[in-house]
Amino acid sequence: MKKKIISISLLLILALSMTLFAGCGKKDTNTTADNEGVQKETENTGDTDTTDKADNTETKDVIVMGTNAEFPPFESVEGGEYVGFDIDISKKIAEKLGMELKVENMQFSSLVAALQTKKVDFVAAGMTYTEEKAKEVNFSDNYFTTTQVIIVKKDNDTIKSKEDLVGKKIGVQAGTTGEEESRKIEDATVESYDAGYAAVMNLTNGNIDAVVIDQKPAERFVANNDKIMILEEELTTESYAIAVNKDNEELLNTINEVFKELHENGEYDVLYNKYFGEEEVDSTEAE
């Protein structure tokens, strides 16, 4: 009799255990499904929000300026901010379009490629209009006239003019007109630098004989370094313009409108005096 009672008890316990295990298993399955559903919805919501923000920022609100911020007083970095003549003009362009200006700082020699691949919308970097570059990008009306000059050490007694650069070691900024002109000089060794100040430092240290660079940056470098000077002879006369992708005729027209307005309302003169402290030098329109 006891054996029969024990057997019935064991059967009841076994049945109860199976019911409990089945209940637990069902609860876990529902929980897992619910968690996966919430995670998926959250991920989709996040992706949608990110896409919307990126579209609004990049295509509707921001215009990107490409430059090389090693070219004072046209563009440089002061106190963590981009400042300079080109920066202020570019802000006027962004203002005209009702957009925010974003600055992409890169090597000068990379700017045309960045414009062609549409990494930037326009280039303002003291870039000289040339017929060769005009085959690759469109240029705005000229907005500044300048020259290429020669910087030497004050104790120099061998270089008095361009003719004396024959056979000498010349420092230039890569991709500039100064580099092009220097490579035309007979037997000269041309050393290219990412920034003009790097060439000036090597001149000061006696590693090169001269630096060929644009006049206004040259004046800034000389003002901050009592060991160097600018020769009186000027190598070239040239004009700066803003470069735009060949496909963006509308932006080019807007930029030219901004230049016209700045000259008519006197704001160009205000900016010129702010950075150069002298009367405006007339510029001619690019053909």
UniProtKB/TrEMBL annotation:
It comes from the Bacteria. Pfam families: SBP_bac_3 (PF00497). InterPro entries: Solute-binding_3/MltF_N. Residues 31-57 are annotated as: Disordered. Residues 1-22 form the signal peptide. Keywords: Signal. SUPFAM superfamilies: Periplasmic binding protein-like II. CDD domains: PBP2_Arg_Lys_His. Gene3D superfamilies: Periplasmic binding protein-like II. The keyword Signal applies. Residues 62-279 form the Solute-binding protein family 3/N-terminal domain. PANTHER family: ARGININE-BINDING EXTRACELLULAR PROTEIN ARTP, MEMBRANE-BOUND LYTIC MUREIN TRANSGLYCOSYLASE F. This is Basic amino acid ABC transporter substrate-binding protein.
